[in-house]
Design brief:
Spore Coat Polysaccharide Biosynthesis Protein SpsA, Chain A; alpha/beta; single chain; 7-stranded mixed beta sheet; 303 residues; 14 strands; 18% strand; 3-stranded mixed beta sheet; 11 helices
Length: 303
């Protein structure tokens, strides 16, 4: 069972090294994207930590600001790099640097072997009550993020900053209409993270090369990483092989529309232990590193 991991990271060098060290076995490769805006000192530390891993590859960097399409471009760069190796991978798993395995590497391999040929990605058809305006606000409106401020054109809103208000007025003049939806597609949303077969990943790589207009349409789309792969895969020959599960334990809290999951800590351990998922997110060792020690001990006991 050959597995490739695409990992998008921007901080916590030691935590990233720990994740890779725990996942590192024979027949595993890592394709690492470090956000282009990451502080140079942090980048150097990450590179120093990982340079001696012969199966770690650093991919082209993007300024993958939260909510921007560059987060998709970063993962697409990982897919492209994997395909271009010419090596066949049974599965490609998309992680963030703040994810962590909650099953042993042998359990992960066994699970994938038992479910070989299935595609694991969370999805739901749009419109969906989980997302504002059913989710089409993300696709139909022009999304621009400037100075940590979100602009959805032509949605009306009030601004605390006079500069923000002025910029919005100018954007309304330049981008006055809702955007047309890509034609011929059923629309889906879901989690940004997935576990896909090598065949499916190659299909995505070919689709992206052959359909640049479709890809570019997702520029100025809010949180496109929660739409892009779902729309491609659920409109592809792989649709009937999809399992509606991203194999992640995530706690979104009690809010109906929340953009960031809870940071997991020791109080979450029992729920994590009982989970049948392969991975969990997200963790922050600067807030609680004990939880990862507890997970390591749990995995060791269950081997």
């Amino acid at each position: 069972m050959r597995i490739a991991y695409i990992i998008l990271a921007h901080n916590h060098p030691e935590q990233l090294r720990r994740l890779i060290s725990k996942l590192n076995t024979d027949n595993v490769s890592f394709f690492i994207h470090i956000d282009k805006k990451t502080d140079s000192q942090i980048y150097s530390q990450i590179f120093a930590y990982l340079k001696n891993f012969s199966n770690v590859f650093f991919i082209k960097r993007y300024n993958s600001a939260w909510g921007s399409f560059n987060a998709v471009r970063a993962s697409l760069e990982g897919i492209k790099s994997i395909v271009e190796t010419g090596t066949y991978f049974d599965y490609v798993i998309h992680l963030s640097g703040q994810d962590y395995l909650i099953k042993s590497t042998s359990e992960i391999c066994n699970f994938l072997q038992e479910n070989k040929g299935k595609e694991f990605i969370e999805y739901f058809p749009l419109p969906h009550s989980k997302w504002k305006k059913g989710g089409f606000r993300r696709i139909e409106y022009w999304y621009i993020r400037w100075h940590d401020e979100d602009y959805f054109i032509p949605e009306e809103r009030e601004f605390k900053s006079p500069i923000g208000s002025l910029l919005y007025s100018l954007l309304i003049l330049l981008l006055p209409k809702k955007r047309k939806l890509p034609e011929g597609f059923a629309f889906y949303g879901g989690s940004a993270f997935w576990c896909l077969t090598g065949e499916c990943v190659k299909y995505i790589n070919d689709f992206v090369k052959q359909n640049p207009k479709f890809v570019n349409r997702f520029n100025y789309t809010s949180l496109a990483d929660e739409l892009f792969y779902q729309i491609i895969i659920l409109n592809s020959p792989f649709k009937d092989k999809v399992v509606n599960d991203n194999m992640r334990y995530i706690d979104w809290g009690d809010d109906v529309e929340v953009y960031h999951p809870r940071v997991l800590d020791k109080s979450d351990f029992e729920k994590i232990r009982q989970s049948e998922k392969l991975f969990a997110r997200k963790f922050d060792t600067s807030k609680d590193s004990d939880i990862l020690d507890m997970i390591d001990e749990m995995i060791l006991l269950n081997k």
